[in-house]
Automatic annotation (TrEMBL):
Keywords assigned by UniProt, alphabetized: Coiled coil
Top-level EC class: transferase
Keyword Coiled coil: yes
Protein name, as recorded: diguanylate cyclase
GO BP, one annotated term: negative regulation of bacterial-type flagellum-dependent cell motility
Chemical reaction(s) catalysed: 2 GTP = 3',3'-c-di-GMP + 2 diphosphate
Keyword presence, Transcription: no
PANTHER family: DIGUANYLATE CYCLASE DGCM-RELATED (PTHR45138:SF9), REGULATORY COMPONENTS OF SENSORY TRANSDUCTION SYSTEM (PTHR45138)
Top-level taxon of origin: Bacteria
Domain PAC per the UniProt entry, residue ranges: 84-137
InterPro entries: Diguanylate_Cyclase, GGDEF_dom, Nucleotide_cyclase, PAS, PAS-assoc_C, PAS-like_dom_sf, PAS_fold_3, Rev_trsase/Diguanyl_cyclase
Amino acid sequence: MSQRDRDRERLELALDAAGLDLWENNLVTGEVIQHAARTFRELGYPDEEVPQLVANSLDLVHEDDRDRLGTALGELLAGSTADYRCEFRLRARTGDWVWYANHGRVMEGEGGRPGERFVGVTFNIDERKRRETELADIYRQLEEQNQQLHRLIASLELLAATDALTGLANRRTLMESSARECKRAERYGHALAMLLVDIDRFKDINDRWGHLVGDHVICAAAELCRQGIRQGVDIAARLGGEEFVLLLPETDGRGAMALADKLRLAMAGHCVADGDGQPVPFTVSIGVASFEPGLSHMQLLHHADKALYRAKHQGRNRVHRFEDVAAG
């Protein structure tokens, strides 16, 4: 045995111990100098079938991996890359698909002839790929659960911030928002107004038509409040019972009065249906207050409440502003 044969034998032993399957092709003649015998044995093919399989080796490659394999070989032979590396699936004799990887390089042939030998190794990466797939599934499930958690948190935050019956902001959200807007108006000298809206004779509605119709009236009034504000700027909230508050940043007293009267007319022109489909009309009274330097959000609400009381006292279905109440 020559030294070269002994070196090759040692190399093959080391490769076999490492799970690497040596192969070699002659790029000039197309001859398969050494095929990946270990790989074919792992796939369950008997020795007598191997020559035919080597001649048609691409048929063993999963169709989804063939383009990737061809691209990697093409880049190597075109000189775009010095190394050939590719991962792909091979069909076992049982029909199962098993993941393998190839690493190879073009080397000199006998006498130093360049570009003659294509030498590389094939090795089984199926377990690693399966772990990667399992991890990918775990990450996907975690991401789905994370998204569900975010949706749940968003739903909980929405529930905590909105009134269950009307969907408007609730009292807590109103207090937080009005405190923030009052500080902002104080700091920058911007206009800020508040409307306190109360459904007239709401107890009579409940007594005559029942609480279900009363809830319909509350929801109808809430929807008209929502439609009357600037989305993303103003805030419509249910203060409690049949009372609503509209918080209007960047709105002066004149603009607030105009909106209040428009809203009053919309309420007066709206009806809900009772259980027999008969119309149930309702009206509202509205108190208007404008922010002044030094006012807290609770004081602003108190001013709007005083204006509302005057509107109620003077016959309901009216709009009054605090400045007129304070002056007279």
